[in-house]
Structure formats: C-alpha cells, structure tokens
Amino acid sequence: APRRGRVFTIRRSISLSGWGTSPQAARDVEAANAVEAKMGDKALAKGVGVFDFAWRRVPMRWRLPGRRTRRVTAALLLVVVLLNQVTPGAWHSRSARGSSGPGEICAEHEPGSRGDAATASLRARLIAVLEERSRDVDGASEASNPTAPTNNSPQRLDDTKFTVVLNTFQRRDLLKKAVAHYARCGDVAEIRVVWSEQVPAPTENDADARLYFPNPTAKRSDRPKIKYDPHPTTSIQNRFDVKGVTTTAVFNIDDDVRMPCASLAAGFRAWRRNRNVLVGYFPRLHVWRKEMCQHQYVWDTFSMWRHGEMSIVLTKAAFMKSEYLRLYTERLPDDARKYVDARKNCEDVAMQLLVTAVSREPPVWVKQPTWHFVYAKLINIGVAGISKGANHHDLRGKCVTDLSRILLNGQDADEDGNVGGEKFGDTPLIASRLKPWRDKKY
Q1: Which of 335, 348, 402, 426 is catalytic?
Q2: Half-sphere exposure of 426 (CA within 13 A, CB side)
Q3: In angstroms, rounded to a whole number, what is the distance separating the alpha carbons of residues 31 and 406?
Q4: Is-contact 224 183, C-beta < 8 A?
C-alpha cells in the first residue's frame, strides 16, 4: 500500500511539470485573463493581438498539452493519414454522382437480359479458342511421343508450383527488392520479369548481376529460375505477353507489391480450388450509374465495405491460369488493345472481363494480413504510379463500360481509342458478396 501511494505522489508531481501547465504559466495566464476581464475588447486597442485575444478563450488545460495529449494527437493524425489513403474515393464518388445533368440520364440502357445472349456468344468463342489451343498442344505432344498420355495441356504442366510474372518499368530499386523477396518463397518455380524498358535487360554476366539474380538464401537453397523477357514496346499490356510458361498457374505482380510468402502460399491454395477464375488480394467493384451513363469503379475500402460486393480483382497481385495469358494476347479484340494502349490503363479490367466471360464465375478474394495492409499503405505514400494520376479511378469506370461494349456489342474504337455507338450498360462482370476466401483444410 505505501508503495502505491508513493507512485501516485510521483505521478502527481510529474503532472504538474510535464502533463499540465506549470505554476508560472498558470499565473501568467491568470494575469492576462484579469487584464482582459478589466479592459474587455479595449485590450485589442492596447496592443493585444487578435490571436492572443482568441487564444485566451481556449481552456487552460488545452493550451499546453502534455505527453498523453501528444500521443493521442499523433495517433489521430496517423488515422487521418490512413483514412486519406484508404477512403478518398468515397467523397470523390459522391461528388461525381451529383455532377451529371438530367439530360445525361440513360435509364433505358441499364444492364439487362439482352446482355446475356451477347455474353453467351462471347463465352462460346473464347472457349473454342482454348479448346483449339489444347488440341494443338496435345497433337504436337503425341507426334513427338506417341506413348505420352493424352491429358489436357494444363495438366501436363507443373501443378505443384507457380510462375511469378513480375511487371516493372524504370523502378530499379523496387525491382531488385521484389526479385529478392519472391526468390525466397517456397512455391515459386520461376520468376519472369516483364522488361519493357527500351534498354538491354540485365544478364547474369553483368557486374551487378547479384542484384537482379540474387543468390540462394538460408530460407531456400534452390533459387527459382529468373528470366527477363524484353519487349520491343512499352505497352502496359506486355505483362500478359509471356510465353513458355512451365506451370499451370501464374502469379501476376507489380514491382511495388510484395506479398508475404505465407500469404502467397494461401493464395495459391485458394487458386487450386478455384482454377477457372482470378484469385487476388485487391478486390474492386463495378456499379451501374444511370445518371453517369456508365459504370462507376468502386475501389476504396470504405465504399467496398458499404456496398458489400466485389466483381474485380487487380492483376497487380493475382493468380490465374497460364493459358489465360495466351487468350489475352491472341484473342482480345484489336479495338480493345488499342483502347488500353491509348489510355495506358485498364489492362487488368480487360483481363477480368475475359476471365469472367469464360468462367461465368466471380473472382475470389484472398485477404492479406492486416499488418501488411497498413504497412503497404504507408510505404507506398509518395511512390509514383499510374494509380496516383488525376481522374485515374473515374477513367477506370469508363474502361469497364467501354471495354464491355467492345467485347459484347462489337463496337469499334477510333484512332484515339474512343468508343462510340449506343450506350449499352451490359458487362460480363459478375458481382458477388465481399467475403474473403477461407481454406477449411488449412
């Protein structure tokens, strides 16, 4: 009991010197208040500034905050920064919805049953392409080895591991860190770096080769094969132009995203149980807005939670069938490719449209650890990228609308990638409940 009393006394003495105002400061404030009470507004005429006049009306316990108040203030500022990174789209989309005039309402073009037939036709064409590709591979395999089993091509690929397709462009520091990180993950069979810079790609003979081809580590002695795939253009669609993949699954990733190896393994398990869809860590949603005559792209955490649905996962961190890469590069309509190149954006939307059209199933969301979500938000503050550009998310809503029209209605794009014709709102995308995948076995 005496010990508790001493601790309490010490804390009170500390509060007088550190947590609250000092006795001298309190006397000065009381003296100033006495002058103000005596002279009133005339104090302003006697040389007292407006700031001082207003400051004296602030309660005295707030004027000199102590350590506890500073901690609370710092925590509140951190929350504000995180909210600014997570939820700005909620306010922006609210203002955007109110900006359309009454003449732009196109309720007659809302998505409906007429899009079902167009989606079914698109799905039949895409599936025919995949089956034709599978027969070609099977025929070539049987010709070279008549005793080989006649399984479908994906089953003959390595199904126990996956290939990391790493997209990068003029961010060497991020590239080195990303390659070193994914080379340590156990399920990675190969790392393919999409090299769109118009300079020679790194080689293992370079003086700084160890930075781009890291040595095996204690966590993994058998380093995965690392290959840099140069491209003659800087098209953002090069990320899907990867040939010679030896695994059934590929993991598309941007150089500024580093998923923990444990989360990567969980995502791979989720994909093995949902092979026909995209499985990713960043869910998004499309919502038809008749007052805007187009789909709205919902992306921020608050709005996603409010809607409670998802229809897109970003390919900046997503698993997919390796055969979908060839489907994109060979069968995406030229007008759609021209549209994406003109905007340097929305290649992931186009891929999601194709995959959903083939599978007729929504994507799967794998939740990343909370600590990693917060950490990624903080370290990416100030990092340059296309998603940081002005009107980026408004553009993506228009991408969903226009690319859907190109795929379903056969509408053409002009030289600048603009889509004309009627404003149909149908899309192959399918919305589902915003619920993370849970692996019951593990």
Answers
A1: 348
A2: 21
A3: 76
A4: yes
Q: In what order do the strands lie in the sheet with 158-168?
A: 225-230, 188-195, 158-168, 247-254, 317-321, 279-280, 364-365
Residues in the chain: 442
Whole-angstrom distance, CA of residue 278 vs CA of residue 362: 8
Alpha carbons 230 and 234: distance in angstroms, whole number: 10
Instruction: Mark whether 426 is an active-site residue.
Output: no
Residue 285 in contact with residue 304, Cβ under 8 Å?
A: yes
Return the ∠ at Cα 285 (arms to 279 and 290), rounded to 5°.
Answer: 150
Question: What predicted TM-score, i.e. pTM, was given to this entire model?
Answer: 0.72
pLDDT tens for the chain, 442 residues long, are 555 444 444 444 444 444 445 566 666 667 666 655 555 554 444 455 555 666 666 666 665 556 666 677 777 777 776 666 555 544 444 444 444 444 456 655 667 656 778 888 889 888 988 888 676 555 544 444 544 444 344 447 999 999 999 999 999 999 999 999 999 998 999 999 999 999 999 999 999 999 999 876 656 667 899 999 999 999 999 999 999 999 999 999 999 999 999 999 999 999 999 999 999 999 999 999 888 788 999 998 889 999 999 999 999 999 999 999 999 999 899 999 999 999 999 999 999 999 999 999 999 999 988 877 787 777 666 555 555 555 777 889 999 999 998 998 765 555 555 555 556 788 999 999 999 998 765 4
Token pair, residue 60, equals 């005295």
